[in-house]
Amino acid sequence: MTAPRQADVSRDRPREEQSALPLGDDPAPTTHLLAERVLEPSRALVATDLAPPALGAVERLIQFAYRLGVPASALTLPMGRTESMRILATVDSPLSGDRAAGVALRAGHFLVHGVKAPIGQMDFASNTRLTAPFERVVHGYAWLRDLAGCTTRDQAAPVANRIHAAWLDANPRPGKGRAWEVELVGHRLLAWLVHAPLIMGSEPLRGRTLTAIEDGARWLDRHVGQAQDRLGEVAGWVGIVAAGLLLPGGKPRRIFGESGLARALGELTAEDGGVLSRSPIAQMEAIALLVDLVACYAALDRDPPQALTAMKALLVPPLLSLLHGEGGLGSWQGANAVPTERVAALVAASGVRTRPLKDVRHWGYQRVATRAAVLHFDAAPPPLPRHARAGCASTLAFEFSSRGERLIVNCGGAATAGGQVPVRIEQGLRGTAAHSTLVLDESNSTAVLLKGQIGMGVKEVEIDRRQIETGRGTATRLDATHDGYASRYGLLHRRILVLRDDGTELLGEDILTPQGKRGKRGKIAFAIRFHCGRGVELRLGEDGRGATMLLPGGQHWQFRLGHECDGELAIDESIWVDGQGRPQPIQQLVIQGMTSRSGGSFSWLLKQMG
């Protein structure tokens, strides 16, 4: 596949184009700092190849015949013999659900990102218009895990049977509508198989459920290639493989599914294991699918294919790279700040023991971690349209935390729109202004379209990462440039971030350079936004060139503009979507003004006091 390119270009950059940004009180410009190490250039967002399980001649013949539509029974059973439908094993998944959502179900409500909906008033029909979060819960059966994790089976089963029977009544056979999107069918089928004891209590319901499972598996056999994106296709293939494992005579379906799943997983991820949607929420979903599927293999005392084990191990390190010091997830590509407990539970369930990646260059994120601080930097184009889910124009935005407290964040949460986050602000949360970066003329660096899609904008990001000597110790220097504003305004946005290795100073410079040899005449409005973490108290300095930042835990930071930074510093309101999908009021620092269309430079410093 082709993808936007990232390259290391700093070694070829003319000396006069280098930043003149000082570190702290040191007057020495960064061009005078000695580079200890330059990371090698690499391609960006290249799909990973995963080989399907090796098959013998007989298995290849079975796979070929099943793909052509020959029934599994004709390939596995003697002529004229049938086998009764049943589930062959009980699955013990290590994944846990949302306990609060499970308790709400027992009380008679769905609870989705803080919004309650009475079960008795829910219309389960496939053609009913639900918001995306409710579709995932209701039609994807995400509620079943929540219910299973909040109480005993005996107490959960009556509630599960009631909801499940209502859904089957509204959807007696495969049809059309959102309930029959490949991704939701895959999730639903997997949930039915993993949590079968909860939904097969009475004899009539057991028979209806087994019929629905077989119907859903056959539907996926025919439609799995029609998924809206690769993650949806992976969910469909996972459902097929699970059905092949846990239903009688399932060997042909399992062989068929394992081959398709290996291919889909290879097309889902970049070389370093990051999903091509660049969404940490999608990354978590992919891991959870594989954890449940591996549990299906374990229920039959069967080893999963090596490709699944390898992919599970590949998916976890990139996810860890977007964790802040307290263990919660950063707000990138529509994700909300998923809390520590949920991420830790998923990683523990995966069984993968690893460390975060620092330079996830293929996925597009840079991580710099010191003893006290963590910096995340988006140094890549947004995802390609065919991969985007809640695609955000966030290129060159950053998040920063110190001693487990978030100092600079992005608004995040577009993927949770339809819960407490209103759908009407979903596009705004995906825009450049909702991220801690520079905005020109109040426009997005990449066009934000409806239904999570993105349009034209950033095509290429050049990135250089190196360790430098400052004369006062060492620091990590990130230098990146994007072309998102080049076609409209003839300007490139370059951002340099320098984080001292003790985590007490973060130096930044945003530079606008003309794309050609000559810049255009006139001026253009700019704004550089720094959305501050929840509970951070801001106060402007008397000279209007700085601000104090008091964190909830007592840390005291100072923000200062550089001497040559031509812009007004102001405090404005903002929002941040928390780990439960609830929008929280926060504040933001904004450097704003007019700058020449021939270019400009704006330096700033974040420094811990005391």
Structure description:
- The chain contains 16 helices and 21 strands.
- It has 610 residues and is an alpha+beta fold.
- It has a domain at 6-45 and 357-608: Beta-galactosidase, Chain A, domain 5 (Distorted Sandwich).
- Strand 8 and strand 9 (405-409) form a beta hairpin.
- The longest helix is centred in the middle third of the chain and has 21 residues, at 203-223.
What topology does this entry show?
Layout: E1 6-7, E2 34-38, H1 57-67, H2 72-76, H3 99-106, E3 109-112, E4 115-118, H4 132-138, H5 142-148, H6 153-170, H7 182-194, H8 196-199, H9 203-223, H10 230-246, H11 251-268, H12 280-299, H13 306-320, H14 340-350, E5 359-360, E6 365-369, E7 373-378, E8 398-402, E9 405-409, H15 426-430, E10 438-440, E11 461-469, E12 474-482, H16 486-489, E13 491-500, E14 505-514, E15 523-532, E16 537-540, E17 546-550, E18 556-561, E19 568-577, E20 583-596, E21 600-608
Parallel strand pairs: 1-11
Antiparallel strand pairs: 2-11, 3-4, 5-6, 6-7, 7-8, 8-9, 9-15, 10-15, 11-12, 12-13, 13-14, 14-21, 15-20, 16-17, 17-18, 18-21, 19-20
Helix pairs in contact: 1-11, 3-5, 7-9, 7-10, 9-10, 10-11, 10-12, 12-13, 12-14
TL;DR of this structure?
With 610 residues, the chain is α+β, with helices and mostly antiparallel strands.
Please bin the fraction of helical residues: 25-40%
How many H/I helices? 16
Strand content: 15-25%
**Class of the domain at 6-45 and 357-608 in CATH?**
Mainly Beta
| Number of extended strands | 21
Low-confidence stretches: 1-5, 8-49
Round the mean pLDDT to the nearest integer and report it.
88
Largest sheet: 10 strands, mixed
The CATH level-2 architecture of the domain at 6-45 and 357-608 is identified as: Distorted Sandwich
Overall radius of gyration? 26 Å
Question: Could you say which overall geometry the principal axes of the C-alpha atoms support?
Answer: elongated
Give the end-to-end Cα distance, rounded to a whole number of Å: 51 Å
Instruction: Label the structural class.
Output: alpha+beta
CATH-derived topology of the domain at 6-45 and 357-608: Beta-galactosidase, Chain A, domain 5
